[in-house]
């Protein structure tokens, strides 16, 4: 029986994870569930999955959750704050941690799980983008098993030799990172100037949280994933090729030096990578319909349009610059995406904010988590000020 802490239980990945878990009550049990704003949903999840702990961010949310749980006679204990998040991620009673909080807020609890040597199911790509060096060093030191949930990275993981993490001598030529192209594939920058948050969040193939949906529409998600792949698979950004594949059936591939390309295919449903990582190295039913290639009939590929989608190049440049450049990129992007969702800036201004922040700040080599946090703060302050300037 694997005991699981689910960080970000109330989100899109969280809900899909609970769906897979509930199909296998003989294999998985829920230890702790965490949420932020969706307290009603968290209360329902605690009841249904009999969580030992529920974690929220502040006292007011904790009081609300407690009263909901009391009313339904649910015995889940409610705790709150960042220390509580880190505690349920690192507790001795936990085997596996699903890291599915969105954004920089996921870094500390995910790292706490890594340091405690847990099996990590990593959806929160932002923690690797921000602090990849420190994160991977902590994985090495604790012996934590790190399994990617991001569909592309999970696909690459499946296409690499089983002993890749130990040997790295595998004859790899390139990693082929799939991108759907998002809702604005084929649009010009001019056409995207006036799109609304709802349009940006209406992804053609995947149903996801709003932040990653906007990132998918701007291709920043692919940029963050490029950096994520560099850390996970120990390759340089030039060894990764982004391939726009609008059907989202080939989730990514590995090209070997002998001319072979190994790809992982499946319907676009996050329950597949979640089930893969939960059961690894075994396989379990994910509740996902099997792929019907006759119905799909065609798989298409195109190059990304760097002119219309400058975020991809910004991420590539940040990956090459290394140091705290990716953390700065990530923080500026989080601020810009929130400003876009709040209708304070236009969609194409997201790239402008990130670009200005990257060129306005100098890069350093962050040697501690405090230094990463400091870079993140600097970037947030710079991009917030730039947005205020745009607005005035
Ligand atoms: P959602 O926005 O749907 O969910 C985010 C989760 O994090 C929710 O449980 C939310 O709580 C919680 N949360 C938000 N802010 C905070 C905070 N400040 N402190 C603590 N908890 C917080 O996001 P997704 O599920 O879509 O994405 C989660 C992560 O997985 C992201 O890093 C994303 O990049 C990655 N990912 C997602 C994919 C997908 O298909 N959705 C695919 C690949 C990667 P609440 O809702 O209660 O406010
Ligand atoms: Mg992805």
Condensed summary:
With 392 residues, the chain is of the alpha/beta class. The protein has 18 helices and eleven strands. The chain binds NADPH dihydro-nicotinamide-adenine-dinucleotide phosphate and magnesium ion.
Structural class of the helix and strand makeup?
A: alpha/beta
Number of helices: 18
Question: Which compounds are bound in this model?
Answer: NADPH dihydro-nicotinamide-adenine-dinucleotide phosphate, magnesium ion
Please give the CATH class of the largest domain: Mainly Alpha
Strand content: 5-15%
Largest sheet: 7 strands, parallel
Radius of gyration: 20 Å
Q: Which fold name is given in CATH as the topology of the largest domain?
A: Rna Polymerase Sigma Factor, Chain: A
Backbone shape: globular
CATH architecture descriptor of the largest domain: Orthogonal Bundle
